[in-house]
Design brief:
The protein is mainly α. The chain is built from six helices and two strands, in the order H-H-E-E-H-H-H-H.
Length: 145
């Protein structure tokens, strides 16, 4: 692969040009520069960008990706990556549980709110009664919680 400018590699990767700057500012990339001062991205930067994209798709933050990249140059890389993957897996498991709870609530809402425009929606009544209750508590407590 030849050296590419920021706009060229952004198109190749399917990302915005500013994304490359964010990654550079986060310490994930350090492209070279040509004589005119333009950032130039070669094979190593391209591979690193693909790694960043894949890591983000798995839900890793830029900070975590940076740490993984830093550890990749040590003898403890495999152990570190495994621990980070286990941590992320646990986070995903919690998110899945929360989504399952949300799904159950939404299914109940759909069942309760059957689409009959002449009926009162029990869910909306429940929701508004809680909002009113919270507002009342806030007023009674003088805005303190």
């Amino acid at each position: 692969m030849k050296l590419m400018k920021r706009g060229q590699i952004a198109v190749e990767l399917g990302i915005g040009r500013d994304t490359l700057l964010v990654w550079e500012q986060a310490g994930l990339l350090s492209p070279g520069r040509n004589d005119a001062g333009h950032r130039m991205y070669g094979d190593l930067c391209f591979a690193r960008c693909r790694f960043i994209q894949a890591s983000q798709a798995l839900g890793f933050t830029l900070e975590k990706i940076k740490r993984v990249l830093e550890y990749s140059e040590t003898t403890h890389a495999k152990e570190f990556v495994r621990l980070e993957a286990l941590t992320r897996l646990e986070e995903i498991s919690v998110e899945i549980d929360q989504m399952k709870e949300s799904r159950a609530v939404l299914l109940e809402i759909i069942k309760i709110c059957d689409g009959d425009p002449t009926c009162e929606c029990e869910f909306m009544n429940y929701l508004f009664s809680h909002i009113k209750h919270e507002a009342h508590l806030n007023i009674v407590q003088g805005g303190k919680r």
